[in-house]
Specification:
Largest sheet: 7 strands, mixed
Mean pLDDT: 89
Number of strands: 9
Helix content: 40-55%
Number of helices: 22
Strand content: 5-15%
Shape: elongated
Distance between the termini: 75 Å
Low-confidence stretches: none
Length: about 550
């Protein structure tokens, strides 16, 4: 399937160059210290590989229920190469080079005129230097490896359209990779649908339409089930919802309110924003489509290019510089992918796939209206302007420590302990404690008891905090605490509230007279310290003193 990667010496050298460049860039940017890494990118693969799904209760909050497969490579790197964080960063960055190489191949597939050799290079240069792709290289967000799979699927679809009709294997593998990507992480779902629409736009040109469509459907289903079938079964078995907590208005799991899970904090806020959203982050802004400050004009230029190319693709009387089937496929994929991304997420971090392709749209539009030489000059000018005006967000990196993840001082936890995790991100401590430890999160302080200033501050920029109260694990948590006969601890931030009787008494617990253990991690961007505090169960006489 990946024979094309080594079919030519030039391609092999370029692929190697891309891989070395992206790995080096990741290494130079520093150590991954993102909130998501501490919250679930370490815990989820740890739980998956050690069989903790039915043991622990929501240690990583909502993210506990996300597919762990994409995080397994990083977890294994940290487990076995924890003393070499620079090497881990370099290897994690290789996904970026793989993505760049596939974009390079697509550019040369679309711009096939050998007399105009610079066009694919310029299109590639614009796409692979986007703010989201570059800033996330080497990070555990997994949007770059996801984009690699989706773009590779799109490349295979283009190969299918260009090859002989009998070579339907490319259609199968395109659907298989897209389905696998959608199963690994649902943020790729808009582009899975986009690829499907782009496939059916060309259905009239298929040699055997029914056979080809069935093969495409089979590939997509096989890819999705391979990467997500096992996890959906686990979720359904445990919670009655195979995509828990999503679409719970349909599945009605008792562990979540019967509503659909939505994250709307980055949604467009006006009709103009819904129509021309990419133009709103041309200049630096924060909290419009991203947590950190970001600025990038690529998608705005791509949207403008799309508008210019649309009539050319679908009206035969207009002369097209590109092959019309490829142009239709490209525009269909971009349009559907963008609209669905806008509707379901509007989070810029999830749009690496379209950002990487944006250069193709821009160069195609320029070449349609200008000569080759003028296109080259304008494109070079655009690249210079983009490099000068793009603001790459700082997601969370730190200087390298002796270890990728470490806790100091080493924590002392008795065997067969139950550890309550109150707050986030905290689940990163789980892989660093004894394997017989059980972890419980999802413990909620009633809203009426929550300090007013802390609650308003927590929900100002993170509406997910409110959704946290849509979960219903209270009885499960109470039962786990009541049945536990070993030591009990609480891990939290040193702010006092979780040790307050208001918080602990409803759980049948109280703070022990034994002092808490203060500890820290080398990734201290989100907290200056943590505490591990022993707890005790409240005796029956204490509950009913009379």
């Amino acid at each position: 399937m990946l024979k094309f990667l080594s079919s030519h010496r030039r391609d092999s050298l370029i692929c190697l160059l891309f891989l070395l460049s992206s790995g080096t860039l990741s290494w130079m940017c520093g150590q991954d210290a993102t909130w998501d890494l501490l919250n679930y990118h370490l815990y989820n693969p740890f739980a998956f590989l050690t069989g903790r799904f039915s043991t622990d209760i929501m240690p990583a909050g909502i993210h506990t229920f996300f597919n762990p497969l994409l995080d397994v490579p990083l977890y294994l790197l940290i487990k076995y190469f924890n003393s070499y964080p620079q090497i881990i960063a370099f290897i994690q960055g290789l996904w970026g080079g793989a993505l760049w190489f596939v974009i390079y191949k697509i550019c040369y597939l679309i711009f096939q005129d050998r007399a105009e050799k610079l066009l694919p290079l310029l299109a590639c240069a614009i796409g692979i230097t986007g703010s989201m792709g570059i800033s996330q290289i080497g990070l555990s967000y997994n949007e770059v490896p996801l984009a690699f799979l989706l773009v590779l699927a799109f490349y295979f679809l283009l190969l299918f359209l260009l090859k002989k009709p009998q070579q339907t294997r490319w259609a199968f593998w395109a659907a298989f990779l897209a389905g696998a990507a959608g199963g690994l992480k649902y943020t790729g779902a808009p582009f899975v649908v986009a690829l499907t629409v782009a496939f059916f736009v060309n259905v009239r040109s298929f040699h055997k339409p029914l056979r080809t469509c069935c093969l495409f459907a089979l590939g997509g289903l096989a890819g999705f089930l391979l990467t997500n079938g096992f996890f959906m079964f686990q979720l359904y078995k445990a919670y009655g919802n195979p995509v828990f907590p999503f679409f719970n208005s349909i599945f009605k799991s008792p562990f979540f309110d019967p509503v659909n899970f939505d994250e709307v904090r980055f949604y467009p806020r006006s009709t103009l924003q819904w129509l021309f959203y990419p133009f709103y982050w041309i200049f630096p802004n924060q909290w419009m489509v991203s947590e950190p400050i970001v600025a990038d004009a690529r998608l705005a230029l791509a949207q403008l290019s799309f508008i210019l190319l649309l009539p050319i693709a679908f009206f035969a009387k207009i002369k097209s510089y590109l092959r019309r089937p490829l142009l239709k496929t490209l525009l269909s994929f971009c349009a559907v992918g963008f609209v669905l991304w806008l509707h379901f997420y509007s989070t810029l971090r999830y749009i690496v796939t379209l950002e990487a392709i944006s250069g193709i749209l821009i160069i195609a539009a320029l070449r349609q209206f200008f000569s080759y030489k003028k296109t080259i000059l304008i494109a070079i000018l655009l690249i210079g302007i983009l490099n000068f005006t793009t603001k790459y967000p700082r997601w969370g990196r730190e200087m390298y420590s002796p270890h990728a993840i470490e806790i100091t001082p080493e924590l002392t936890v008795e065997p067969h302990a139950l550890v309550l995790l109150v707050g986030a991100p905290l689940s990163f401590v789980a892989p660093l404690l004894p394997e017989d430890t059980r972890f419980i999160g999802g413990i909620k302080l009633p809203v009426s008891k929550y300090p007013r200033t802390a609650w308003s501050r927590a929900t100002q920029h993170y509406p997910l905090t409110k959704l946290y109260y849509a979960y219903h694990f209270e009885k499960t948590v109470e039962q786990a605490i009541g049945q536990h006969t070993g030591p009990i601890y609480l891990v939290t931030f040193p702010w006092g509230l979780p040790l307050d009787p208001i918080f602990l008494a409803p759980l049948g617990l109280r703070a022990s007279d034994t002092p808490c253990q203060e500890f820290n991690t080398n990734l201290n961007m989100y907290s200056a310290g943590y505490v591990l505090c022993p707890l005790e169960k409240i005796s029956i006489t204490e509950e009913n003193p009379g």
